[in-house]
Amino acid sequence: MFWMTAALCVIQVWFEKPDMGENSDVNDIEGRKNGFQSFEHAAADIVLAASFNSSGTRIVLCSADHKIRVYNIDEDNEYFLVDQWRGHDAEVLDVQWLASSLGQFFATIGGDNKFKLWREDPSQAFKSGRRFRCIFSQSPLNHVSYVSFGSKTIRHDLFLSLITHDGLLSLLEPADPESLSSWNVIDNIYPFGQHHRGTEARFRLSFHQGEGPSTNAVFAGLDPNAISLAVSAIEHIKIYRAVKSGEPSESNYLFYEMIEIQTDATINEIAWAPGCLHPYDIIAAACNDGTIRIFEVNTPHEVDASLRTPAVKAYKPNGPRRALPATMRNAPSGIGAGLADMSRNAPPREVMNSLNIKHEWKQAALLSHDEAPVWRIRWIYDGSALASTGDDGKVHLWKQSLSGDYVDFAETEPV
Ligand SMILES: *[C@@H]1O[C@H](CO)[C@@H](O)[C@H](O)[C@H]1NC(C)=O
């Protein structure tokens, strides 16, 4: 099961894995609604986000009633409540399971300006309100709420990225990988300059999930251990690659801006397609004008570029970076010109372009969502299909056909 939409008291879950092979008929109207199942949850208020664990047998919901709820799903697709508890002192805005060999973990952000990590404590009974313990809690240095976060695992290393309402992006790694109860900030930037309070830039971020960067990017000289991250604000998406600088023994990643994608619609969410279906990268943007835009990002390169010494070696590191000083205005920040209503006085970062990998982008598809704002998108089946939901009250599943077009192959009724 992969995708849900949240109405006030119903979650719709896509269960069956449809036949994604060559014989599947995307025009099969009868088959369109098959595979979705509804379940009623106990939240007293709107569910703002939900996340399945990687085996799909457990779902965590977070809602405006300040609570977090975890359900197990048995073989008959029945849901039963594992626990519910007050997770934040405000609405719980987002939740994600984290891939970890250390047991069951997930992360939340709340309207109380907190980011929290939760770990299951099997010694506590189901429905005790104590089955999940908060093992880490952090507030932004700049006292502005977090609006989006993501996680990325490279082999056994787990990274987190958080962005605040004013656009401060940070990359974190565990200080103690055994417990995950303390984290170090390894880089901090304002990708679009510092955003003024009061206005809404809708910052979103999405890591590229996969074993390594796309094959073309590696051929173009990108370090195979690079972390790839997309960050959006208003109508812009910036693509970053984070690579280790300095000695191999130091785990010290720095963000490098590669390219900026510009569109003409306000972006509500972005999703970098996982997997390796294509040698280039694909990023989808859910837009407020009722469209989903699919962007291809490629790295044109000469044939022998992969034989070069990795580009990062040629670059002299600045030394380790620390957490931001108390005066955020003087923080290292702002690559390139900010957006119109964003601060322009932040100095550009000197390391810009030092990776020397050319990136280019194009819009590969424009999908229509009945003119209603699209709020959530998620790649499924390793990136061969995209699920979306928005103000039209439906969940759509899009699949790329052999001709390269994206076809709306399943949708639910509005709830
Ligand atoms: C997902 O949750 C179920 C139910 O608790 C558990 O049995 C399973 O191991 C979990 N999967 C992962 C990958 O943690």
TrEMBL record:
InterPro entries: Sec13/Seh1_fam (IPR037363), WD40/YVTN_repeat-like_dom_sf (IPR015943), WD40_repeat_dom_sf (IPR036322), WD40_rpt (IPR001680)
Methyltransferase keyword on record: no
WD repeat placement: 85-128, 367-399
GO CC terms in record: nuclear pore outer ring; Seh1-associated complex
GO molecular function: structural molecule activity
PROSITE patterns listed in its UniProt record: WD_REPEATS_2 (PS50082)
Keywords: mRNA transport, Nuclear pore complex, Nucleus, Protein transport, Repeat, Signal, Translocation, Transport, WD repeat
Cleaved signal peptide residues: 1-21
Cellular localisation: Nucleus, Nuclear pore complex
Gene3D superfamilies listed in its UniProt record: YVTN repeat-like/Quinoprotein amine dehydrogenase
Principal place of residence: nucleus
One record GO biological process: positive regulation of TORC1 signaling
PANTHER family: NUCLEAR PORE COMPLEX PROTEIN SEC13 / SEH1 FAMILY MEMBER (PTHR11024), NUCLEOPORIN SEH1 (PTHR11024:SF3)
Family: Belongs to the WD repeat SEC13 family.
Protein name: WD40 repeat-like protein
Organism: Letharia columbiana
